[in-house]
Amino acid sequence: MARNKKQEIASLRRELAGEVLMPLNRLAGDSGTDDGERRQQLVWQNFRIKDCTTANAMVLGTEHPEFIEGHEAAAANTVELFEIMELYPAGVAGVSLDRLAQVHGHYFGSGFEKTVGKKLRQFCIEKFEYDDRTRKVKASQKVLNAMRKVEARDLVVEEKEHFKKFKHAQVQEREPVKPPPFALAAPAVHFDADHRPRYATTKMTPDELEERPMNAKGLGKGDMF
Fold first, then answer.
1. Would you put residue 214 in left (φ > 0), alpha (ψ -120 to 50) or beta?
2. 175-189, pLDDT tens digit by residue?
3. Three-state SS at 178
4. How many Cα atoms are found within 13 Å in the side-chain-facing hemisphere of 180?
5. pTM, 2 dp
6. b/e map of 75-95 (b: 16 or more CB within 10 Å)?
7. Are 125 and 118 in contact, with CB atoms under 8 Å apart?
8. Cα(137)–Cα(127) distance, integer angstroms
């Protein structure tokens, strides 16, 4: 079994020969299969992976100036994994050794000391800040301080953008609403020249009234025909 593992590692190294960078998913194959998962763990254990926790993880080939392999590569992968996945998000609260051991086992698929070449506690003392009383590991204070400065700068930019949007909204609220352009409404009743109105008393149109002969009854004595 150990021989097969050595053969697989040698095969992976041949694929990296002459390369500067190679996508992890191309080198290891589909991580959803047993074979792909085993190859991916072998890459984690033996070769340096940049941006190892992202979908765009790249494995350094033999032509890359920072190419390393074996325990050295595993240690560098471990530092990046712990910082990105656990220590940076935890901040000053820190992360327990047990949690780090669990995360490491998931990605490397092998015991910590066997993979990295030293015990987890000793490794954390060398690479990070370790509290022996709480058994908690934290990123270095220098790194945490730098992160706080970046976060503070981002918050200032975000606050300025929010205030700018607020002022713009306030100005828009103060502007009077312009009435729509005036337009004459269409008449409710369409005028028809052939349809003349009738008087309410006689129910006759003006033309019909003129054509009707006048009744003399009711005229005054002085009236003339």
1. beta
2. 666 666 655 555 555
3. coil
4. 2
5. 0.65
6. bbbbbebbbebbbeebeeebb
7. no
8. 10
